Amino acid sequence: MKAQTARLFLSVSAFIALSSVPALVSHLELRDLRTETHNLSHAAQQVREFRDFSSNIDQSVHELRMLSLAVSSTGAIPPLTATASVFQQLRGRKEMLDSSGIAHLTTVQGRILASHVENILRIWDNAIEGAPFGGSLSDFSAQMDRLLTHANRAKALLQEAEAQLNRESDEAYAESLLLIDRASQLLLWVLGIGGLINVLSLWRTQYSSHLKHLALSRLSEANAVLQEKEQDLAAQIIMFESALDNMAQGLCMFDRDNRLIACNRNFQKLYDLPEALSKPGATLQEFLAFFVSTGNYAGPDPESYVRERLHIAEKNDVAEHFLDFINGRTIRIVRKAMPNGGWVATHEDVTAQKRSEAQITFLAHHDPLTGLPNRTQFHDNLERELARLGANGQIAVLFLDLDRFKTVNDTLGHAVGDALLKEVARRIADCIRSTDSFARLGGDEFAILLAPTRPEDTAALANRVIQALDAPFHIDGVKIAVGTSVGIAFAPDHGRSSTQLLKRADTALYRAKAEGRNIHRVFEEGMEAQSESRRELEFDLRTAVIERQFLLHYQPIVDLRTLRILGFEALVRWNHPRRGMVSPAEFIPLAEESGLIVPIGAWVLREACLEAARWPSALKLSVNISPVQVASATITDDVSEALRQSGLGACRLELEITESAIFGDADHALAALGRLRELGVRISMDDFGTGYSSLSYLHKYPFGKIKVDRSFVSGLSLDGRYLSIIRAVINIGRSLNMTITAEGVETREQLELLRAEGCDEAQGFLFGRPMPADRIAAMLDSPPVLALPPVPPAVQRGVRAAG
Which segments of 167-274 are extended strands (E)? Predict the structure, then answer.
């Protein structure tokens, strides 16, 4: 209602403002318009008064309800003066209603409203005076209910009157609008064109000013929005450039005409681009020309490369490819077409990654130390050759490993061992044909594949390899001798699979080692059973070390001048729980190959020294030391600990070593023997004459005794040359002040010849077989009696001179 009235007043004001010609106003129906306007204003005032009246009645109703609640809760009539002011306001409102003359608008409703209000006030006055109640609570409650009834009815009448006034106001408002429309038409007709132009000019001026202000306002708002968007765009550009420049890959973007849109810093650095090619607009042809000039292209020639790159640029797809540039770099390019016809690509230098992958692939099939194919690659090569093997063809597999390589590793260290393996690989490569292949299978094991071949050619190659590896190696100034044994298997005779051929070549290798080393053997039926037996024996040998299945026998050593027992040599025996006594010739080589000789030898030293400590103090103990023990780092500690635990004097202990212990690594052997000599023990060279028999060893090393091998003693009565050799050895020993002991003396003739030549000591079956320790005491009590001729005077004079 208020909004409609406001719009009416604005319309009237605008109408009056347009009526600039007083002469024409009298022709308009302004009187009726003013009357309707007054009536509308008066009706609005009545509505406000009705609402105030209604508010007073609401307050009265609220007070009456609170009063009724108090009566019902306390059971007594409370003081009524507190609510009197509310009904006093209601009385004043009723009087104002009567005096204002509003009641004539709704005649019937007004009279009824007045009646209800009068009843409310009358009842209230009586309540104040207390006349009709007589002090009764029930009467008071009944009066309160009547008051509420009249109040609610009065309020309903007020609301109905207000609605009626609103309807009448709407009708008056519509009538006023009709009058204004008629007046506006009349005014336009009267004013004519001139007046209309004046009015329109005024409107135009006002409207133009309004439009200008509005345009300026909107322009300012648009400018603010634009500035904000420019700031956002600048921030996004900074983030975009930062993201591009922090990419691990180089990125370039070209439009549909193959012109550069953008590229990041890594793309520029990747190809060392000049500034002109880093700016938008550079063509793909210019890039390709630059790549060709700097060697950053792939393919047989620059023209092919350019054609291929231009062809790829025309494709609308996603592609990934690698380019191996002629300058050695490998670039990974991932290209993707864009919806607008251009394309974007990332470039990544994966040279290091590709090299690493190639290295990993190479190492998966090759030995990292020597660069040779490994076992896997050798199997693959062998399977390919077997697949191509014809009906009359033949393939040979040579399996070889190095002798005494473990000793080199243990004594000189793995660095020297690695250098030795490289040199071994080089020497083998010099022996084979360019069409042959060989591999390092692991450790000191190598394999050679000959395809095609013949048995005689294979044997010849095996001999060449053996000879090549038999020659001493010089590694870091150290002279090293190893040697090799070779096992051979042929296809199809010995198998048609790589696994079977390698296994049988390995079996033949074991046979070669068992028969003396530095030889080759071809696989034969029956070898596998022997090889399996050897593997079982090695397993049993390891068990024997743990379970202490070994025992010692002792063989006497006698003085050839007096035949008095000087001491005993300790000889190890293996009492196998199933096989019985196993020959040392059978298990000692296996123990040396497997390295078990080190713990076995340490046990022999301890047990022998403990036994010798119970002998008469004049008797000496002789113990054999393996070359593997000499090469080990524990030999000095093992000997020292055996002497300490037993309490045996070091001067009573003799350690026997063979020439092979020296030949492998002479410098290490010299140092090890020197440390043993410092303990006070005596060092003997065992089996002299069967190895390299270098006289320099006798001068260089601290030997106190030479033991002549039994092979020379056994031939004394058969060949005079053996006697000459023994005579020479005796003379050498005498000149170097060394004791000479002959091994394997079994006959009186041998004994007499040795005594005649002036040999100092002897041992053999003639004097006593190896015996358990518990028989030594009986032998010492009843030594063997031999009727011997007197020692020749010449020998006596030589002995006295040597002494």
Answer: 250-254, 260-263
CA dist 644 → 639, 640, 657, 680, 759 (Å): 9, 6, 22, 13, 34
- Which residue is associated with the tokens 């450790």? 443
Bridge partners (DSSP) of residue 532 are none
One DSSP character per residue, 30-80 reads HHHHHHHHHHHHHHHHHHHHHHHHHHHHHHHHHHHHHHHHHHHHHSSPPPS
How many other CB atoms are there within 10 angstroms of residue 128's CB atom?
A: 13
Beta bridge partners of 442: 445
Rounded to two decimals, the pTM is 0.49
Under a CB-based contact definition with an 8 Å cutoff, are residues 565 and 597 in contact? no
Spatial distance between the Cα atoms of 462 and 485, rounded to a whole number of angstroms: 9
Of 604, 654, 658, 606, residue with least CA distance to 627: 658
Q: Tokens for 731?
A: 């003379």
Pairing type for strands 484-491 and 520-522 reads parallel
CA distances to 391, 510, 553, 568, 657 from 558, in Å:
67, 39, 17, 9, 20
Cα–Cα nearest to 513, from 527, 525, 494: 527
Run means of pLDDT, 10 residues per run, the chain, 803 residues: 45 43 43 58 64 70 66 61 63 63 50 68 64 51 68 70 69 66 58 55 69 74 76 67 73 92 89 90 91 83 86 80 84 88 90 86 89 93 89 89 82 87 95 91 93 92 94 88 92 90 91 84 83 83 92 95 94 92 88 89 96 95 91 90 95 89 69 90 84 63 86 83 89 90 93 93 94 92 63 44 37
